[in-house]
Design a protein that fits this description.
The structure holds two protein chains of two kinds. Chain A has a domain at about 265-483. Chain A has 21 helices and two strands. Chain A has helices spanning about 10-25, 35-55, 70-95, 100-120, 125-140, 150-180, 185-190, 190-195, 200-215, 225-230, 235-265, 265-285, 290-305, 310-315, 315-350, 365-370, 370-385, 390-405, 410-435, 445-465, 470-480; strands at about 60, 65-70. Chain A has a two-stranded antiparallel sheet with strand order 1-2. In chain A, helix 4 runs parallel beside helix 11, helix 6 packs antiparallel against helix 9 and helix 6 (about 150-180) packs across helix 10 (about 225-230). Chain A is globular and about 65 Å long. Chain A starts with 7 loop residues before the first helix and ends with a helix. Chain B has helices at about 1-5, 10-30, 60-85, 95-115. Chain B is flat. By secondary structure, chain B is mainly α. Among the domains of chain B are: about 1-30, no CATH class; about 60-115. The chains are: A mainly alpha, B mainly alpha. The interface between A and B is small, with 5 and 6 residues.
Chain lengths: ~475, ~120
């Protein structure tokens, strides 16, 4: 019975989701803003509990070894929960005066539970279950504005590609089960040679990489990401880029690294090529985007390329760097998308029927119209480019230096060149915000949006200025993977 | 490896037969059948009443809501079957009853949601 308390964060979120859903049925639309506060309270409680479990360094396995609690799972749960906190605070404003508020928050909480299950899973079936729970909830969230044709397109694309990736994943898992005779991940690790020595086992690994690659938006599987991130409501893009994508990474860390360690050097090159293609394509295509959300989506693809360098290097420092990068990227990207949501709000205040609120022309002179948002967005963009004193610099530093330590200097050089390319399109937005004239007057940011954005800003700066505790926990998490 | 492939030979034979069969049937029918052409031949119901209106009509989506809400009870029963059979002789009846009640309560939230959202109302 004591074990089940280790899942208290998930249970609290599930109860909050049900409470929000049912309370929403009995509330009038104008009172539904309370639902947002209930969700935020639930998420804060879950964060506190997850932290207390993490700081106690608890390690446990439960439910017949299908779920584990260890530093790795707790670190990722904190990533998901922090993004959920930012998104739900911002959404208090976004879904205000919408009669379907309860669905929004309930789906958001369920999506987070799914991601947390993935990060805790120790069995392929549990992993798949969590993947689908998060997937189904986010498909519905992307299509939340069901009257908006662009949102529907984004939702359809995301749903269809998501279904295909699930099929790949399940097919790969069935082969893995056929080869090794177990769905338990440590069991698969023990029998990894059965998987690696057999051509069907290689097919299975490729299928798994494809399945996870869709969620991570690695390059051959990234086509959905720009369309979906651009079409979805900005707060949901923040959730997708900040949390849903990281779910693909934790799943890949858990499953593929097991196989990669057995496969040794042959596959290192393949993953290196994949990482290089991903970061280069993401950065080069982002250069010519006029829609800021689409630019952020391509930059997100590029960042996935940097993070997947951890798969190539596979040393403890590199994995710690990857995990730290995932943590910082969650805050940087979620913050940037929330800032874009604020700009969208500003444009809609001026003109109710405005289209393409995220077009770069709308960012002209933002520093005059909304100085706080402009400053925060500048910090997020500089952090994404990897400028010192921000989270982006620290994580890039750990990841790239570990790559050089491991002797893969060429990979590190390509990654650093890519960072230099990326600075161009980030700086372009900053130029529009600070050096272009505008006619529009000053507008105050709505409080929920501003709070969420400032929280993300503080997180980005804290990780950048005082990174020791974050590096410590990232390496604790990485150690779990390599034992 | 060879053993596995051998055991699939019957499947392969059935597959080949299944692919060839329709063509043979169509060919024989083509040769043997008598032909007559007339206006009524292309009617929807050759010996019935004349059809009215379009075939592509929209019908009410409410029907699907009913079908989906049925899943709530479907899932409940699906889990009750193993629940009632598997734990025989474990002597933890009280705990099991509470657990099933929790499960059903969670499912009932779905039903309450459907009800309050007027999913069970046929005419809106």
């Amino acid at each position: 019975m004591e074990d089940i308390l280790l899942l208290a964060p998930e249970i609290i979120l599930a109860v909050t989701a049900l409470v929000v859903l049912v309370a929403g049925l009995y509330l009038k639309t104008e009172h539904k803003v309370a639902l947002g506060f209930i969700s935020v309270a639930g998420i804060i409680m879950a964060i506190a509990l997850t932290m207390s479990i993490m700081l106690a360094k608890t390690s446990a396995s439960m439910f017949y070894d299908t779920m584990v609690i260890d530093p790795l799972s707790q670190v990722f749960k904190l990533v998901f929960l922090s993004v959920a906190l930012l998104v739900s605070i911002a959404s208090v404003k976004y879904v205000s005066e919408d009669r379907n508020t309860e669905e929004f928050f309930a789906l958001l909480l369920l999506a987070i539970i799914g991601m947390m299950v993935v990060s805790s899973s120790n069995d392929l079936i549990t992993l798949f279950l969590g993947f689908e729970l998060a997937g189904l909830a986010t498909y519905a969230l992307v299509g939340f504005e069901k009257k908006n044709i662009k949102v529907l397109e984004a939702s359809m694309k995301y749903f269809i590609i998501g279904a295909v990736s699930s099929a790949f994943l399940l097919f790969g898992m069935s082969y893995v089960y056929g080869m090794t005779g177990t769905t338990n991940i440590p069991g698969i690790a023990a029998n990894a040679h059965l998987l690696v020595d057999n051509p069907i086992g290689i097919v299975a690994i490729v299928m798994l990489i494809a399945g996870f690659g869709y969620k991570m938006s690695l390059v051959p599987f990234h086509m959905w990401a720009p369309d979906t991130y651009q079409g979805a409501p900005s707060v949901i893009s923040a959730l997708l880029a900040g949390a849903s994508k990281k779910m693909g990474f934790i799943a890949a860390f858990k499953v593929i690294i097991v196989a990669l360690i057995a496969l040794n050097a042959e596959w290192q090159t393949i993953f290196a090529v994949l990482a290089v293609i991903t970061m280069t394509l993401g950065n080069v295509v982002a250069l010519s985007q006029d829609s800021v959300k689409r630019m952020l989506a391509y930059s997100s693809v590029a960042q996935a390329g940097y993070i997947s360098m951890a798969f190539v290097v596979l040393t403890p420092t590199a994995l710690a760097g990857g995990i730290l990068y995932i943590l910082s990227h969650a805050f940087m990207k979620a913050g940037a998308f929330i800032a874009v949501a604020i700009v969208g709000f500003m444009i809609l205040v001026g003109n109710k029927d405005a289209r393409d609120t995220d077009h770069i022309d709308n960012f002209r002179g933002l520093s005059k119209r909304m100085p706080i948002t402009a400053f925060a967005l500048m910090v997020f963009l500089l952090a994404l480019a990897g400028i010192p004193a921000t989270a982006g610099f620290v994580s890039k530093f750990v990841l790239f230096s570990s790559t050089i330590e491991a002797g893969l200097v060429w990979l590190a050089v390509i990654a650093i060149l890519n960072s230099a390319i990326s600075l161009f399109y980030y700086a372009r937005v900053i130029k529009y915000m600070y050096f272009m004239p505008t006619e529009g007057g000053r507008i105050t940011e709505p409080a929920p949006y501003a709070i969420a954005m400032i929280l993300a800003l503080v997180a980005v700066l804290v990780i950048g200025i005082w990174p020791e505790p974050f590096i410590y926990w990232a390496s604790e998490a990485a150690n779990v993977l390599l034992i | 490896m060879a053993g596995i492939i051998d055991s699939y030979i019957p499947v392969a034979i059935i597959l080949v037969v299944a692919i060839i069969m329709p063509f043979i049937t169509m060919f024989i029918v083509n040769v043997l059948s008598p032909r007559s052409s007339g206006e009524t031949k292309f009617d929807t119901y050759e010996s019935g009443s004349d059809p009215t209106g379009e075939a592509r009509i929209q019908f009410k989506v409410e029907y699907y809501l009913y079908a989906i809400s049925f899943v709530i009870f479907d899932v409940a029963v699906l889990f009750m079957f193993p629940w009632s059979v598997v734990f025989v002789g474990y002597d933890i009846a009280a705990l099991l009853t509470i657990e099933l009640l929790i499960f059903i309560t969670v499912l009932l939230f779905g039903f309450v949601y459907l009800w309050k959202k007027e999913g069970l109302q046929w005419e809106k």
